[in-house]
Amino acid sequence: MITHRNERGMKLLLLLIYLSEAEGRRKFWISIESAARFLNILQDKDRAWIRQEIRIAFRNLKKYGDCAQARFYRGDDAEVALALPAGPAFTVGSYDLSAGELALLEDNQIFLRLVRARLRGEGKRLEDLPQKEIEKRFFLDDRTLRRTLGPRAQPARAPRSTQPDRG
Fold it and tell me: Is 0.70 topped by the overall pTM?
């Protein structure tokens, strides 16, 4: 689902989308300290170190495309311009994921909630899709799927006859 090195980038992107929607603008300011606290990188470090880590998180966003540009001003917050690609979209409501949960949930749990929100928009449920379709459509590895979803129920099979075959 999400590789270890992309965790901060993905979480930062979700935070930026949330802030953009909350402010109703695609260009806005973000507090470096708030972003660091959200990304769990505020650990008794100095401001220069924290700013550098936030810059790295923004660089990691480039792996998802050129969707966010940040301008860092000396000793100030960052100015962010969010440019989400045009195309199919789906809504993630507070039923699926709230801003407070983003900092608490593991990255695979966040991704799973986004997948469920996407499927709900299509009138489908994750539990009803075959495992192979989930793996192919959302690029999930079988082990990651088992670790995140837990054991999935196998389709019921017809019971075997205990009588010897007389044919």
Answer: no
Element (H, E) at 53: helix 47-60
The sheet with strand 78-82 has its strands ordered as 27-30, 78-82, 68-72
The angle at the Cα of 123, spanning 120 to 125, to the nearest 5 degrees, equals 60
What is the CATH code for 4-82? 1.10.10
Rounded Cα distance, 64 and 38, in Å: 20
The type of residue at 121 is G
Q: How many residues does the chain have?
A: 167
Q: Comparing C-alpha atoms, which of 97, 95, 127 is closest to residue 111?
A: 97
pLDDT in tens, 127-165: 888 888 887 887 777 777 777 776 654 444 444 545 555
Q: Which helix (H) or strand (E) holds 69?
A: strand 68-72
Residue 26 CA, chain-centre distance (Å), reads: 20
Tens of pLDDT, residue by residue over 76-129, are 889 999 988 777 777 777 777 776 777 777 777 788 888 888 888 889 988 888
Cβ-contact 12, 64 below 8 angstroms? no
